């Protein structure tokens, strides 16, 4: 395996080893937090008071991890294309690549800043939270819209890319509005509804991601694989089925 092949598996490897275990922790703590909130005020709960704070902290790490792994997945086809074809054949040349790298790094800085912001009340740091949430979301979407990124537009309803973009935006929104979620019941209900959708998208990402891995050849296999007729499902030298 070459360097680009190892880079290709970074996205799914981190998702499996890091993101989904954290997701399990977040979902478990979310359930316990909800159970504690719904328990009678005069009853002694076995669920510790700290579970809500632990859920919030794990959610911060989950959101940040999701954005990072998404940027890795989006960055791979862009930068690998540049390596394969060279600056002369790459659309926009070196100048475009530099601009994309700056956008990629800027998105990482934005999500890191959003992670580090610790407002004590819903009124605190509203503008910075909104600003860095918008910058992060815009960066991910803008990079994802590059022509080198495969989107499966012909099957958008089962697209790993579109599921991922929606999931990233939902997670960023949850992180940016964390003080409101902790303080106001209506925000909490909205958070629950949106994150039930996010949990379903995580499930979809697991399935569509595994499917897409089967379709990505190693770098030395690409010249042969890409000669295949993907409409009629035949390759050179292979008789039609």
Structural class: mainly alpha
How many beta strands in the DSSP annotation?
Answer: 0
User: Total helix count?
Assistant: 8
What share of the residues lie within helices?
over 70%
Q: Nearest-angstrom radius of gyration? A: 21 Å
* Mean pLDDT figure: 91
Note the run of SSEs as H and E: HHHHHHHH
Q: Which term fits the overall shape?
A: elongated
Biggest β-sheet description: none
Q: Can you tell me the number of structural domains?
A: 1
Which range does the strand content fall in? Answer: under 5%
Uncertain residue ranges? none
Pfam family, one: DUF4079
Organism: Synechococcus elongatus PCC 11801
Protein name: DUF4079 domain-containing protein
InterPro entries: DUF4079
Description:
This protein has one domain (3-38, 47-213). The protein is mainly alpha-helical. It has helices spanning 3-38, 51-89, 93-116, 126-144, 160-176, 178-183, 185-214, 222-225. It is 73% helix and 0% strand. The model has no long low-confidence stretch (mean pLDDT 91). Keywords: Membrane, Transmembrane, Transmembrane helix.
Features:
single chain; 241 residues; mainly alpha; 0% strand; DUF4079 domain-containing protein; DUF4079; transmembrane; transmembrane helix
Short description:
The chain is mainly alpha-helical and 241 residues long. The protein has helices spanning 3-38, 51-89, 93-116, 126-144, 160-176, 178-183, 185-214, 222-225.
